[in-house]
Amino acid sequence: MGTFIQLVVDGLSTGSVYAALALAIVLVNQATGLINFAQGGMAVLSAYFAYTGLQLGLPLLVAIVLAVVVSFFLGAAVERLLIRRFERGDPDTAIVVTIGLLTLVTGICGWLWTYNNLQFPSPFPLSTVDIFGAVVSVRSLGTTIAIIAIMVLLQLLFLRTKLGLALRAVADNPVSASFSGLPVGRLLMIGWGFAAALGAIAGSLVAPQLTLTPGMLDNALVYALAAVILGGLDSPIGAVVAAWIIGVAENLAAVYIPFIGHDLKIAVPFLLIFVILVVRPQGLFGRKVVARV
Question: Is the pTM of this model over 0.70?
Answer without folding.
Answer: yes
